[in-house]
Design goal:
single chain; alpha+beta; TolA/TonB C-terminal domain; five-stranded mixed sheet; 6 helices; 5 strands; 15% strand
């Protein structure tokens, strides 16, 4: 059965009219909106001024450059001149004696006591190890002294009973008068052997002293003394 519509109720005939009215209304609303934004809206002056001030108050960040400090200038030296009046009386006057001399002028003699300066001060003064003329023991040097020590050496009984032997290094000084002084053990082996080595060296006869530039001086020696059991 077919449905029939009446012409009064059918809206399809008026759809074109409604579409045109809708377009007109939409265009009118768009135009009103443009006019409203351009003429009717007022901007806030306080807000714009505030933003401009905020932009002005922004301080750019800068980095401080490191500069080398300048060296201090040397102090200026000022010369102070003391002005003296010509009327000042000088009490200290330079007295010049008559320095002229003739043939008859006597010159006072100065006596120097050389004996006091050349006195032998044993145990005092600089100690040398090598000099121009080395000390000599009975004309045989230090080797002759070693032979003399070996001949006069006595082996300690305590060291012999205990089987102690070795080499003792002794240092001594030949003084300006030829005597032997400042005897000491540099490297020892046994107290008994060390004491015997010191005793023999101290009992040494006089040497011919060493000389430096023609003057007797103090000379030090270090010799080994060997103790061997037989």
């Amino acid at each position: 059965m077919e449905l029939k519509k009446s012409d009064k109720v059918n809206l399809e005939k008026k759809s074109s009219i409604f579409f045109e009215l809708g377009l007109i209304v939409a265009i009118a609303l768009i135009l009103i909106a443009f006019e409203w934004t351009s003429t009717g809206f007022k901007t806030n002056e306080y807000a714009t001024n505030q933003s401009e001030q905020a932009e002005q108050e922004i301080i750019p960040i800068t980095r401080q450059e490191k500069t080398k400090p300048k060296p201090p200038e040397p102090p200026k030296v000022t010369e102070i001149l003391n002005i003296v009046n010509n009327d000042v009386n000088l009490q200290d006057e330079l007295q010049l004696q008559d320095l002229e001399a003739d043939v008859n002028t006597k010159v006072p003699e100065i006596n120097y006591d050389v004996s006091e300066e050349e006195e032998d001060n044993s145990g005092e003064g600089e100690i040398f190890y090598i000099v121009e003329d080395m000390p000599s023991f009975k004309g045989q040097g230090v080797n002759g002294f070693r032979t003399w020590v070996a001949q006069h050496l006595k082996y300690p009984e305590i060291a012999a009973e205990n089987g102690i032997s070795g080499r003792v290094f002794v240092q001594f000084v030949v003084e300006r008068n030829g005597t032997v002084d400042n005897v000491k053990v540099v490297r020892g082996v046994d107290p008994a052997l060390d004491a015997e080595a010191i005793r023999v060296v101290k009992s040494s006869p006089k040497w011919t002293p060493g000389k430096q530039r023609g003057k007797p001086v103090r000379v030090a020696y270090t010799i080994p003394i060997v103790f061997v059991l037989q």
